[in-house]
Amino acid sequence: MFKNSFFIFFSALTLFMAGGCGEESTGSVDEQEAQEEQTEHEEEKQAEDIQESEETDENESEEESEAEKEAEEEESQSPDEDLEEVSEKTEEPEEEQVQETEEEQPEKEEISSELTAHFIDAGQADSTLLEFEDNGQPVRILIDAGNWNSDNVINYLHSRNIEQIDIAVGTHPDADHIGQMDQVISRFNVGEVWMSGNESTSETYERVLDSIESSGTEYDEPRAGDTFDIGPLTIETLYPETVTGNTNRESLSFKMSYGEVDFLFTGDAEAEEESRMLNGAANVEAEILQLGHHGSSTSTSAAFLQAVDPEAAIYSAGESNQYGHPSAEVVQRVQEAGIELYGTDVHGTVEVTTDGENYDITTEKEGNVTSASEEESESDVESSEGEAEEEQEAAEPTGNCVDINSASIEEVQEITQIGPARAEDLIELRPYQSVDDLTKINGIGPARIDEIKAQGVACVGG
């Protein structure tokens, strides 16, 4: 605008000076007019050019300003947009990872058959058979194998027309739990043998090891935290984490789940080990509980029973056994909690059948476990009737136990805590009036006497 005004002022000044000088035009009037018109035309054209140039400059300036403004807005918005893009890129792999994880986790196999748990009447011993199907194929798991001086477990398996045992478990190496295991391995097609890893000097234990080696059967020692999925059955190992040689206390203990129905097995584990299970990571709740240590007062503590919260409890014991199993204290505890109680000494073989949601319990014989209020406590039997118990031991048939007064050096090694050296001492120090007299043997104290009694193998027969 300033340039245009200056140009018009300069043109007017020129015309004014030309007219004011009084000089006459050298050309004609027409030429002068034509020249003036041409000059005005040029001036107008120049003015238009200047205006267009200024407008162009203004437009360019505005465009530059708008471009700068847009750039600033883009700069202020770009971090969020970049963050959104990064977030989208980050979220996509997470979704893919979750999807891959879900795909990697195998779906739990649907239950297509019932499971039956047979708590076998094995006398003063222990043996439980589990039967179910996996994709139409029979699966059989045997937990413990009765006592060494009987073939009742073998006979029961034959009565079921069983030819194959997929897993044979010896919860611990006592003769009343692995007594017939060597026969099971030699007479049936056994896929795997699971044991605690604790050793024994008894011939029974040696026979089991020999049968495992000769048959080529696979061998495993599960530890706390180990989980096995066998078709629709899940087996969770509760105990032990390690073994130190304490055979009873370090019994293999399992929670076995078939759909929504759980079974709990603890072998001869005692209250201290039960407490350790409660402090472990596993949930011990179960519908069916096998009472530990044949229903002895050493096991099934009040805290453990409350934590498991079973609907039914089952123990394995011999009828009129010399150890007072099951303990009257434990019977009372179970019954006062409103838990159904079954025992092989009263009911014979007990069967639990489940479809994974519900279960039924059937027994070989009818009967009721005598309530604790109708019996003397186990401690009373041990203290006030010690002599009567000794007489009962003496009257026990030698075919059902190892007579410490007449058994051979090999036979007495069936007794827990009696190895080759102690077996020689045992024979040399005869006769014995009761099992308690085994304290005469160097290294056998009250605690080991308790273990020997709990095993149920040693007796006095004459």
TrEMBL record:
Sequence segments annotated as region (Disordered): 22-112, 366-398
Organism domain of life: Bacteria
Domain Helix-hairpin-helix DNA-binding motif class, chain residue ranges per copy: 410-429, 436-455
GO molecular function, one term: DNA binding
Occurrences of domain Metallo-beta-lactamase (ranges): 126-319
Bias kind Acidic residues: ranges: 30-41, 49-107, 373-394
GO BP, sorted A to Z: DNA repair
InterPro entries: ComA-like_MBL, Competence_DNA_uptake, Hlx-hairpin-Hlx_DNA-bd_motif, Metallo-B-lactamas, RibonucZ/Hydroxyglut_hydro, RuvA_2-like
Pfam families in UniProt: HHH_3 (PF12836), Lactamase_B (PF00753)
Listed PANTHER family: BETA-LACTAMASE DOMAIN PROTEIN, DNA INTERNALIZATION/COMPETENCE PROTEIN COMEC/REC2
Protein name: Competence protein ComEC
Protein source organism: Halobacillus andaensis
Organism classification: Bacteria, Bacillati, Bacillota, Bacilli, Bacillales
